[in-house]
Design goal:
400 residues, Rossmann fold, alpha/beta, 16% strand
């Protein structure tokens, strides 16, 4: 299969169309939250979801949550990114569906499954959560990966970029034709961040006091998320705001190194390594601002969640971050890998409590007006309709 899907494929009118959601998830992050929101809402548009995920220890909690929400899940064996067994597993699992939707959290993942999806007779839709060039430690490895990415993309009917800037990057980097690319901004369930939280109890659970000024960082402890940048900015912030406390919400391979780094900088008493927590909305409500000094992002859900919680955001101006954060209005944008810039931006936001509150309220309004999950899911459903040539009305969509 290749090119744009032709009309007429898929289910007959009158029954739900089956969508296979295929992912090689490694944990429970933004790409997985995206899939949860999509699969639990897409039924309102006449599509029946089924998630196919590799069997990895880090995904167990997410998959249990997904099944508890009524989404069927099938596991397949975990293999390397380029293991040909992934191709045969994809052929076996993806047949019989009306649409195959590949959820790609990283440029290296799901390539064998994407190749298999081209051959099962259904239109293929791919969501790209990162629009970066592939990297490799081997000579010529990055070029080989790019060749594979371009080859499998030749058979994709629609590629969804999670921001407009990401759409442009995918067109530039992967050579995807413009007519096969669609930008559908990430969205969040706004109601999840509107409920009041017991701020005192949440802070107590984190070992924080009521007078502490809390900057929360939410993300896996991997290099690109900029935890080290945040730590190196901290001494300069503490000189002017000694009440500052960081909360690192997440886990990952860098945790021990980051703990040693905090010790070496003399800031370990001001940093809470909170690990993985499911009460992200409550932690955000108990915080004063979000920091995300990443090297690479597209449109991180945690930024939208922080805005919906009324928090100013200080984040690196990478990917589609600037499509959410308006510099000087809802927070501050900084360059990547810039501890001094991060320190200055955080101090600027904290300089006036009134201004901090205004930024938070501006962010809340922007999240409400532009990043509702229902708009995102409706646009994805319209993309399925397009590749299937569907014209009849199927369902009323989400409740208003």
């Amino acid at each position: 299969m290749g090119g744009i899907a032709t009309p007429g494929r898929g289910a007959p009118a009158g029954r739900s169309r089956r969508v296979a959601y295929y992912t090689d998830a490694r944990g429970w992050g933004g790409a997985e939250v995206y899939l949860t929101d999509l699969t639990t809402r897409i039924g309102a548009y006449g599509y029946e979801p089924h998630v196919f995920c590799s069997r990895r220890p880090g995904t167990r909690g997410w998959l249990d949550d997904l099944e508890a929400r009524g989404v069927p899940v099938t596991l397949f064996r975990a293999t390397g990114d380029l293991d040909p067994r992934g191709f045969f597993d994809g052929l076996r699992l993806l047949r019989g569906h009306d649409v195959v939707h590949i959820n790609r959290p990283h440029p290296r993942t799901c390539l064998p499954g994407m190749a298999a999806a081209r051959l099962v007779g259904a239109p293929v839709v791919v969501t790209e959560h990162l629009a970066e060039l592939p990297v490799s430690h081997y000579p010529g490895g990055a070029a080989f990966l790019m060749f594979l990415i371009r080859a499998v993309n030749a058979g994709v009917d629609r590629t969804i970029a999670v921001s407009e800037l990401s759409r442009r990057a995918l067109e530039r980097h992967y050579g995807i034709p413009r007519e096969r690319l669609v930008a559908i901004r990430n969205g969040i369930d706004l109601s999840a961040f509107a409920a009041p939280a017991d701020v005192g109890a949440v802070r107590e659970s984190l070992g924080l006091g009521s007078d502490d000024v809390v900057a929360v960082h939410v993300g896996a402890m991997v290099e690109r998320k900029g935890h080290s940048v945040a730590l190196h900015a901290m001494p300069a912030i503490l000189e002017r705001e000694p009440r500052l406390r960081y909360v690192f919400l997440g886990e990952g391979v860098l945790e021990e190194r980051l703990r040693r780094e905090a010790d070496g900088l003399g800031v370990s008493d001001f940093v809470v390594f909170a690990g993985f927590r499911r009460d992200v909305a409550e932690v955000l409500a108990a915080s004063d601002l979000l920091i995300l000094p990443s090297d690479v992002e597209c449109l991180p859900l945690v930024i939208l969640e922080a805005m919906a919680s009324g928090l100013p955001v200080v984040a690196s101006d990478v990917g589609g971050v600037s499509e959410a954060v308006v510099d000087g209005v809802t927070g501050r944008l900084i360059g990547p890998r810039d501890p001094s810039g991060l320190a200055a931006a955080v101090l600027d936001v904290l300089a006036s409590g009134g201004r901090r509150g205004e930024m938070g309220e501006a962010g809340r309004r922007r999240a409400r007006d532009e990043f509702d999950i229902n708009a995102c899911v409706a646009a994805v459903a319209a993309t399925y309709d397009s590749v299937l040539g569907v014209t009849e009305s199927r369902g009323d969509g989400p409740p208003r």
